[in-house]
Amino acid sequence: MHLIDDESSAADLAFNQRLSPPVVRLLADPHLNSPPSPGFAKPPPPPPSADARPIVPNTVLDKTWPMPSPQQNPGLTVITRVPLPAYLTPQAVLEALHTYEPLIVANPYLKKYERRPVQLEELVNDAFFKEDGFKLQAFIVHDRVPIIPGVGSWATKDIVIPCVFQSFEHGVRCRADAQAGVTVRSSYEVRRAGEVQPDHPSVVHNQVTRAGAAETAGDYELVEIATIECGSLVKPFVKRSFSNAHQEVLQRVVDEIVRTSQTQYVYQ
């Protein structure tokens, strides 16, 4: 396992791993594993002392996560869009998305989340992360999912999902490796309304417009383009559950950005 931290040398990593130039540029990003933005997450602990023991993969944060196979099958593609209010500027939405936390805390089943080091192996075999991106960060997301809805906390299951985020000009890329071999690669983008359209009949297209939102909608929208890799047996279930859940999640992302921007305006 190769952990990437602020003191890692991209040149040394490239020599040892025979990395391609685009990956070298990704690893040279000064924001790699940088502290999260203030106001959304706790700062990381101070660096260990010189005599501290080396990292041993015996905890959730330090374990070696199974690496997804390179994308050979395009899988299932789901496009979800939410209109942005006219008073919310595209730049404000992008700045919020680039902190990553709004995309995490919008999950209704979230129990907790924490930063972890980015693993080199998570990047070199995945073309999803491109050289036009910056600020690679990784998280562990802990979900508590109800098995039998409405009967209490005893009928729930705790799951752990490792995620990797990358910012780029139009938004954020995120890969989440869920259980049962399900890998979700999502691109959250701020686009002009109607700019992103399905390019194939098999693409699932969800338009989210909450009651009253159409009257305040501006010229832009938040679009999630998600590609889901999973087994054929679970694909119908994943397709249905993902489509329904992410309509709510994407609206919650916008609501959180609106709430945060209004709070900042009040205190200015």
Automatic annotation (TrEMBL):
Pfam families documented for this protein: DUF7053
Chain spans, region Disordered: 27-56
Domain (DUF7053): residue spans on this chain: 79-256
Biased composition (Pro residues): 33-49
Domain of life: Eukaryota
Matching PANTHER family: DUF3074 DOMAIN-CONTAINING PROTEIN, NACHT AND WD40 DOMAIN PROTEIN
Name of the featured protein: DUF7053 domain-containing protein
Source organism of the structure: Diplogelasinospora grovesii
Taxonomic path: Eukaryota, Fungi, Dikarya, Ascomycota, Pezizomycotina
